[in-house]
Every structure is written in C-alpha cells, then in structure tokens.
UniProtKB/TrEMBL annotation, chain A:
GO terms for biological process: translation. Heterotrimer of A, B and C subunits. Belongs to the amidase family. GatA subfamily. Signal peptide: none annotated. The gene is gatA. This is Glutamyl-tRNA(Gln) amidotransferase subunit A.
UniProtKB/TrEMBL annotation, chain B:
It comes from Myxococcus llanfairpwllgwyngyllgogerychwyrndrobwllllantysiliogogogochensis. Residues 330-477 form the Asn/Gln amidotransferase domain. PROSITE patterns: GATB (PS01234). The gene is gatB. It is an enzyme of class 6 (ligase). It holds the Pfam family GatB_Yqey. InterPro entries: Asn/Gln-tRNA_amidoTrfase_suB/E, Asn/Gln-tRNA_Trfase_suB/E_cat, Asn/Gln_amidotransferase, Asn/Gln_tRNA_amidoTrase-B-like, GatB, GatB_C_1, GatB_Yqey_C_2, Gln-tRNA_amidoTrfase_suB_CS. This is Aspartyl/glutamyl-tRNA(Asn/Gln) amidotransferase subunit B. Keywords: ATP-binding, Ligase, Nucleotide-binding, Protein biosynthesis, Transferase.
Amino acid sequence: MQLTDLTMLELAEKLAAGQVSSVEATRACLERIHRVDPKIRAFLRVDEAGALAAAEASDARRKAGTPAGPLDGVPVGLKDLFLTEGLETTAGSRVLEGFVPPLDATVVRLLREAGLPLLGKLNLDEFAMGSSNESSAYFPTHNPWDVTRTPGGSSGGSAAAVAAREVFGALGTDTGGSIRQPAAFTNTVGLKPTYGRVSRYGVIAYASSLDQPGPMTRTVSDAAALLQILARHDPRDSTSAPVKTPDYSAELEKGVRGLKLGVPREYFAQGMEAEVEASVRAALREYERLGATLVDVSLPHTKYALATYYLIAPAEASSNLARYDGVRYGLRAKDARGLKELYSLTRERGFGPEVKRRIMLGTYALSAGYYDAYYLRAQKVRTLIREDFTRVFQEVDALVAPISPVAPFKLGEKVDDPLSMYLMDVYTLPCNLAGVPGLSVPCGFTKAGLPVGLQILGRAFDEALLLRIARAFEREHDFFRRLAPV
Amino acid sequence: MPVSDFQPVIGLEVHAQLLTQSKIFCGCSTAFGAEPNRNTCPVCLGMPGVLPVLNERVVDFAIRTGLALECRVNAKSVWSRKNYFYPDLPKGYQITQYDLPICEYGKLLIDTPQGEKLIRVRRIHMEEDAGKSVHDAGGGQSLVDLNRAGVPLLEIVSEPDLRDADEAVEYLKALRDVLVYLGVNDGNLDEGSFRCDANVSVMPKGSDTYGQRCELKNLNSFRFVKQAIEYEISRQVDVIESGGKVDQETRLWDVNKGVSRSMRSKEDAHDYRYFPEPDLPPLHVTTEVIEAVGHELPELPRAKLQRFVNQYGLPVYDARILTAERPLADFFEACAERYPDAKKLSNWFLGELLRLLKEEGSTVTSVRFTPVQLAELLGAVDQGTVSANAGKDVLAEMFRTGRSASDIIAEKGLAQVSDTGAIEAVVDDILAKNAGEIEKYRAGKKQVFGFFVGQVMRAMKGKGNPALVNELLKKKLGD
C-alpha cells in the first residue's frame, strides 16, 4: 500500500503518531502528481514550494506537540475558483490568465490555519459552467476510472485528483451539482452544504444565490472532518449564516435504524440508464435492510427546476462576469482602439463558448420587457421548489435519489449538444434552488467499471444527518477501498 | 404661444455623498483628495470573488434623512444591481435600491414669492458612488481613479412639483440645509458631494398632461441649476413653437457656453437590467431603530428659524442668517443664554463676528473666545466701561487671541474715563485756552459746541465718557 492510498483520517492518525511526516506525505502527493497527472490532467497549477513549506511548518508543530487541528499536515487541492494569495487563480478561463489574487478566500485561510498544505489549483469548467470539465479554457480533465471519459464537472479536476490519489482531499464548489456529479462519476464523496453554511468570500462567483463550496474526499468521515474546518460564519459574506457549527463526526456511526428516507418519484424518470438505476435501487434496499423506512414522496415542481435554474444562474452570471472588462486585471485586448473595442475584444477572446452562451441567456432574461416573464417567474417557481422540500421534510428525515441519470460519458460525446449536457443536471439542480444540503456517496459500479453515486438530500443545516446516512451505507461496502486504476 | 403661455414642470434628483468615515460596502476611507486609487481595496476594486458587507452607519443616515423629510421608512428594503459597463464602475454594476427603497413619500417646505409651498419627495434610496474617469490625461489616455468608488450616496427624488427655476433652486437650498443640519452631507456642490440632475418638461398652461421631459446633468452650482433649467424651458418652448416635438433625452449643461447639448437619446438609453442583489439579503429596519434615530434628530433649519423669531424676538432677516448654519446658531444661543439683549447680540454677530470670520476665511467652530467672554464685553459696553467703537477693537483682539475683554481693555488702556473730577479738570483747561470760541458760542454759534467736545476728547485720547463730557461742557458754558 502506498502512502497516497490512505484516507485523510488514516494519514492524520499516522501524522499524530509520528509514523509519517507531512513533508513525506506531501512529497508522495507531488511524486504521484508528477507520475499520473499527465494522464489525468487534474491540475492547472502545482504549488510545490508552497505545499512543502506548509508541510515543514506542520511537522514542526507536530514535533512541538502543538498541531493546529486534527488534519494538520494533510495535503489537499483546491478547485481553481478559490482565490489564493500570491498564486495564480484563473477560474479555468483565459480572461483571468495570469491573475494573481491579493488575498485568500476565507475557506483557503481556514485550511491554512488548520495546517493543511495546499498542493495547487485544480481544473474546472470555465467559471464553473459545465458538467464535464470540457469547457475549461485550458484542457479537459480525464476520469481516473477510464481516461477516455469525463470526470464530470464543474469540479471535475477536484474529483479526479481525489480519485487518482494525487491529493488526500479537495475543495469544490456546487452551483447546480458541480460537487455531487463529479463525485458520483469518480467513486468519491462530495458534499454541497446548505447555502450559507460555508463562506463564499474569495470564491469566484458564478451564480451568487446558488454557489456553495464544499469538501470532496474518498470517504464520508473525511468529508465530515474537512467540513468541520470549512463550516464557519464569515462576516465578510453577508449570506453566510450565523449558525453554530456542530461536531460533524459525533453521530457518524449511529446508523439509520428508525430513520424515514423519502424516495422522490420525480427522480426516477424515464431516460435513466438501467445500470445506474439498478445501483441506486440496490442502495435503497440496503437502507431498508439497515433499518430505515423508505417512503415514496413527491416533489411536484422538480420538472421546472431545469428551466428555473437556466434562467436564474445565467442571469446572475451575466452580472457577475461583467467585471472582466480588461480595465483592471486579467486579459486585456491591448490592440483595441477605443473603449467599446476594449470591452468587446477582451471579452470575445477571454470567454469560451459556454460562458458566452450563459452570459447571453442571462442578459436576455434580465432585459426590459422580458424580466417579468423570465427572471421574476423563475424566482416564483424557485419558491415553489423550495416549498416542495419544506413540505416533504415534515414527513421524512432525508431524501435518497440518483445523482446523474447517466454514468460517466466519453469526452467529446456531448460538447456539441449543450441541451443534453444541461439535462444531465436535472437531479442535482433542485437542491441548489432550495438551498438545502446534498451529498454524493459511492453506491456501486456499472459492468464496465464506471462509478455510480447515490444522492442524499436533507433539511437546511442538517449536514450531520446526511453524513451519518451516507456513512451507514459506506460501512457496509468497500467501494471507497476500490482504487481507480491509474 | 409665448413662453408665458407654457407651464414648466420640474423634478429633481439629488445625489448626496454621506459623511461616513468608511465606504458603503468595505472599510476603505471616504476622505476626499487622496492620491488616486489610494483609498481602495479588493472589494471596491471589484476583484473576482469578493463580496459587499453593508456599513450600518449608512442605514442610520438614510433613516435620519427620511425622518427629517417626513418620509415613511420601509421596514423592508431591497438591494439591486444596476448593470452597465463603464471603466469607473469596477464590478460592471452599481449596488443600489430599485423596487423597494428605504424611504418613500416625504415632503419639504420651500419659500416662494407666493408663500410657503410643499414639495413632495417621492423616494430616498442608498447606493454606492462610481469612481472618476479622467479623460485627455495626456497621450490620448483616459485614467481611472477609484477612490470614490463605493462612497455611500443617498439619492433623493422629488415629485415633479416645481414650477420654475427659482423654485428648483429654493428646493435644493432647503434640502441642502436639511442634510447639512443632519450632519449627513457637507453640502458641497463644487466637489460634487451634493449633485443634482433636473427633469424638465413644459405643457400649455391649464393642461394637466405633462410634456415630454428631458434630463439635465452636470449642474454643479445653484447658478448653473437656474441657468440650465431656464435655458431648457425656452429651448423646449422653441421646439414646440416651431412645430417640433420634444424628444426624451439626457442633456449635458455646458458651463462655458451657457447651453446644453444632447448626451444620449432615448434610443441610446441603457437597459440597466436591474435585479435583486444576491450578495446582500434584504434590509430589515425595526420600529425600535427608527424611533431611536428619531429621538436623536436635531431641530431642522425651518423650525429653528421660526423659533429664533419667536423666542428671541429677532427680525426674520437676522434669524435667517443666524440659523443658516447649525454651528453659528448654536454659538448664538450659547451667547444669548449669558447676555439678555438678543437683538443687540444679533447686531454684533451680523456686523462684527461674521465680518471677522469672513476676513479670516474661517467658520464659527474655530472662534477662540467663549460665549462668557463675549457676554462680558457686551456688558462692558452697556455699562460704559468701554465705548462701542473701542468694543469692536476689543472683539477683534478677542477673536485673534481668545483673551478676555477685561484683560484687553486694561492692557490697551481702552477703559473710558467716567471720573467727573478728571473730566472737569480737562474741560476747564480747554475752556481757559479758548476764550474766543466761548464768545462765539455765547453769541449764538452753537456749532462751536462740537469743537469743544472734540478738543476735550482729543486731550483725553478718546477715553472720556462722551455723555459726561457733554454734560460738563453744557454746565460750564452756562446752558
């Protein structure tokens, strides 16, 4: 067994026992990145010097008996949407090529304070807009389970790096499924916390009312440990909730006996791949065997989630991305004559086709004369979707459902068909619109050896329960022990 | 139809910079005049990933203004984004309030030749200022200074209740006085901390349908407001008279040429794509907060003026000058507590103190003497210890040094001689030396009396008590 095959908590245990140093663990990651990343292409940027310096500092703390926390010294990676002071941050876009932030995102600061060496920046769909990592302006990331396939998106680099054991864990962001879907595609655990649970300060915005950072790990316990660091009220984010942070590990092992788990019938629509559905159904039966009660429930407005999302998210994005104008930072069309040309050339060259498509969609949805019909109506439907969840959570403790109707698909397979790409997010979008937490836990493989994930959705700020439900399943199976063949 | 057959209709939008120490959504200083881009941070520079956090002081100032203008303060108001591209707008949108502003439905009284008039205030909302673009900076370049980006503004919008340029200027002055009194704005039109746009239209007299309006910008003095509105009224009347139609447009006032020119037409108007700001939750203001702000509201200019007339028996003219600025009014009242004759006190303020302040180019807050010291001086004048003329010199000295009146009078020997014996000796001496003049006086040339007074005062170096000098001379000359 290699050092990089350990989970975060297993490594932390060895660090605490002095059996291995953080520098050794960090070097092991760097060597593995060196060896496998040319095939996976998860990293946009490796910060070898920064990671090793942090690892040395961590070892010194461990030696002095003053570790900064349980994960002190465990190296992780960051989706390239998180600002890192002094380290280039691009959001996977040409428009931010060469942009070196003057500050750390709040969650990056929290990781540093907790002593985690940061290995570098991970690939993503440009500005987190996409479900396959193929809209990255730099290159697509490959799925470690089958390098001809996508690791999902937009946090595909984070998921692939975790699955390929290049990092022990990673941060992703989830606006419409961008943590959960790549986790499902790579046999990893991904948690989208409740909107407002984790600070968005210093996270490059895609759709402000939906974006939420979260942990991506190999195990449920690792996710709980990482969330423990991230979940903090942040006065710099006015949408950050002033809610106390519970101990996410305290009830992890309590099982599901006596819990009522809702099975939303709208999440098992036609068009789902048979093998995916079979895996998910098997997982549901497993929960019954473990003592949970399955309840057939309905979230009737689910069918409007896709249309609602593709009005609200692009509308916010069209405004959020207005700042990339070539005036202050990032790409600037130096050959432009006059102001209008500076804008149009900078943005024409800086943004890829998917980003442009969403800026146009959003601009249209907000335009005078269309606002009421599109944006305003979408907000009303969003309220109905949220009420669906509120109502169903009076009846059940959590929901169990598929993440994606399909298994990881071939790179290039859907790039020319944006609509079919959008349709794949149909089971992950409602969670963001409602602001509730959602988790993806490995629940099996197709015959071809492609991972399938199970989605668990819960009440706002009920992350601890989601983790407990996921852990109950994980304990019974060895999926996380299966390592991607790289 | 001549101009006199048209009724102008005017509404004003005022942008007032708030006197907070820091910006509306970050901790940067709002100080004016710093080196370009010095007062900036990632938030007001519109860096990727950063988020706004509301400065609560701005809300306090907005409520204060709303209550002073008798507005309804909304329990819930909403932040919106106004989207447009410009280099001095770092995020590509301005955070403002649109559908639900913090205050609505207020009013302000103004004076017109026909008497008091009520001007309705439609709404007050909070927003962030943009930066400044500096064009033709050399080499054909335009430069951007973002020190002003994120400085808090109140936009105060009137209903179209104003009917001519003079009313518009009166409204602006009254509004400025209120804001300055509240301590929320410095009222400075030159530096642009108090800015005004005017919406102007004309309609035939007697009509109740407003004409097409034009928006006038760049009105950075009361004089330009008046000129630009009058120009716009006659321009619109000319257009209609010559059979044309007024186009809805934004026009820029050219200070040098005294004309306005079209800046953009309705077709070029921006679609600002307003939508609720997702980075800021709706703002909730409790009744307790509104009441607390209401309790701290100072007396407003109009009420103070009225009180100065009633309480001190001052003419409106005096009261208006004394209440024009809150510190001057406060200082006057502090003095009036210690000196009973308010009209006399007002004369000293209007005649002497304001002149001294003007000469020194300072304001009443920098006056070096205390109300007690001023009361002492005025008392000395009343009692004849010092002449009114010498008193003015004493005040000037007090103004320069802050020393007490009695010290200055003693040191400079300015005290009047009111000792009858001492004056009598001088009178006798002068009469003895001027036997010829006494003859003339007794022969009926009464104007010689003034000669004797002058001689006595000169001999006494101006310090003789004039009343006593007169009395003794008359007695000796046998009147």
